[in-house]
Amino acid sequence: MDDMNDETRWLDDTERRAWLSLLAVVLVGFPELERTFRPYGLVHVEYGLLAALSGEDEGLRLSELAAQMNMSQSRLSHRMRKLVDLGYVEVSGDACDGRVSIAKVTEAGRRFAEQVSPAHVADVRRLIFDHLDDAQTAALADALGAVADRLGSSCPGAPKGPPVPKARA
């Protein structure tokens, strides 16, 4: 085994603070976000599947959805089975290719997502953004975007390339 001590670039104080803060968000913040979905028998990843499918009127191939959500086919199948049993999603064969399955949000799934999304957004604001000013939010978006790009993030809604300024109404 190589001696890594000579080559190890230890975290400086700022990097260590950033890393420990990120861990706090993941280990404390995400379980807090899960509380929004618990009364409905769901977890955040299942809500994420509904959110991803809600923007797709024609539905998505299960293989595309798995790739987009960074999930294995088997994990996706398990989560989709639960959403289908709840009546939130329907899975059917593709009319052009019987080997392909397409997932679509049902009307009940859309109603559920519309019902729970305001609480979810309120939790995200309460846990993260209410503590930041505009400059900090932009810096966080830039920093996490750079990390996500390096990880090859394909998360729904993740920015691709440089941010595009939104038109003001």
TrEMBL record:
Gene3D superfamilies: Winged helix-like DNA-binding domain superfamily/Winged helix DNA-binding domain (1.10.10.10). PANTHER family: HTH-TYPE TRANSCRIPTIONAL REPRESSOR YETL (PTHR33164:SF43), TRANSCRIPTIONAL REGULATOR, MARR FAMILY (PTHR33164). Residues 1-149 form the HTH marR-type domain. It comes from the Bacteria. This is HTH marR-type domain-containing protein. PROSITE patterns: HTH_MARR_2 (PS50995). SMART domains: HTH_MARR. It holds the Pfam family MarR_2. InterPro entries: ArsR-like_HTH, HTH_MarR-typ, MarR/SlyA-like, WH-like_DNA-bd_sf, WH_DNA-bd_sf. Coiled coil: none annotated.
